[in-house]
Task: structure prediction
Amino acid sequence: MSDLSVDIAGIRLRNPTMLASGFLDETGGSMLRVYKAGAGAVVTKSIGPQPRTGYPNPTIVELDIGMLNAIGLPNPGIEEFREEVKVALDGGAVVIGSVFGKDADEYANVAKRLASYGAAGIELNLSCPHAKGLGTEIAQSAEAVREFTAAVKGKVNVPVFPKLSPNVSNIAAFAQSAEDGGADAIVAINTLKAMAISPELKMPILSYRYGGLSGPAIRPIGVRCVYEIFEAVDVPIVGVGGITTGRDALEYVMAGARAIQIGTALATRGLSAFVDVTSELLAFLEERGVKSITDLVGAAHG
Amino acid sequence: MARLEIVPLLDVVREVHHTLTYRFRASLEAGPGQFLMVWIPGHDELPMALSYLGEVKGITVHTYGDATKALSAFRPGDLVGVRGPYGNTFRIEGKRVLCVAGGTGMASIIAAIEAFHKAGSEVVTVLGAKSADELIFEERAKNCGDVHISTDDGSRGFHGFTPVLAKELMNGGKFDMVATCGPERMMEAVIDLASERGIPNQASIERFMKCGIGICDACALDDYLVCADGPVFTGEQLAKSHDFGRSRRDASGRRIPV
Result:
């Protein structure tokens, strides 16, 4: 039987699927449920220093090609989140803590707390396209990506994964900056800044007006970004953006991703998305006699 | 995924003082207990159970906050957004069914009362409210079977809390299904009474929601999502719940008392 387990910067995953941040990951009960449904790891909601309610509704727009969201980083704050992480860990889940903040210190302090709760790794949300004064600005400067990554690396001794924005002209340069800052892996991509307007009402649908586009529409962009990053850095890559099937995941793997994340597909395939993608991957490998998924990482590069 | 539809209101009917029914045509098909995310442009988007399921759909809303207050000023022809339907439905099973509604909870269960009746069940409804001027859809329920009224202040019908009247009815006759919607403490009492007597039961639960489609985790009830796994839960599911009757999540995801 082909081997689907992977190692990302020392974190062993039973299969390469991870829950993408922002989906069913604000409560311990839901994170554990997702892990039990077959995810190799779960990434938490992005957590900040204080409780935050997010934006008023509408916060999502369902589209045929995916989804727009501007939820606005709601989270219970790092103090209260301890209990949620505990519930997930006690049930056996592998938890990666996602953090955001307004400056490098905030990122580092929240990351340190999450690591102390037992998170196996830290994902840095440096790329949320719909949060004023937070991720957006950070994502626009490669130097800031290096600085924030280094600040967090200096405070935690678990692997650190900056999650990069596709809303830049050269994502490979940002990945290099993250690597310079000490990143143990790169997560790409976050959502694309986007908008939906109601013609009848002559107004943007989201209360924040702008949102992040996710789902099938962005998969070719994510695959291209991972392909470019793979050529620019040595650290492992976690691919995310519009993965619904095993074939979608394989595109990312062959572009250079060692693991992949699933989010929007939960709206179309439900929680079975993890088992579905995993079994589709396995079938592909076995049909071709491939021993390990890791043998295919970067296979599309000549 | 469901598409957002922008629809004009056909009519706005005042059921009782603070509770209005807004009706519209939409191309979606929904079952009893399902809900829509209703966009009140410029204000908010809220989960609303359908109180009318036919070609003309309706939502019946208690005016309690800024967004519902803004909605209460809407007139026929004004536009709202609807997407859905979401969630599960009441299970329409049972030869003799007791439906227990408290206050605006009647708006979520009236479609089920009608569905039970249409399916051939004998339906007995307990309709409770704080006082007589808060009772809604009494006539619609009467068209489906016996209706027993209770009011906390005794201004009509049984003087006391709704579950006390529900208990008398459960003791006085044989039911093989209990369905309820209303304040959480009331529902907790009703499903406990039913479960103690071995009567299958179901309750429609309310939680703060953002996405409505089972991805954002705002409406978590233990490891259930009220929007996708509910809003209707069985007594067995709720008996194992730590959150039901005790805690809910605020907009930031913090656990707070019900």
Notes: Chain A touches chain B at residues 22-27, 29-30, 32-33, 45, 51-54, 56-64, 67, 69, 71, 74-77, 80, 84, 198, 200-201, 203, 205, 207, 263-264, 266-268, 270 (CB under 8 Å). The two ends of chain A are 27 Å apart (CA to CA).
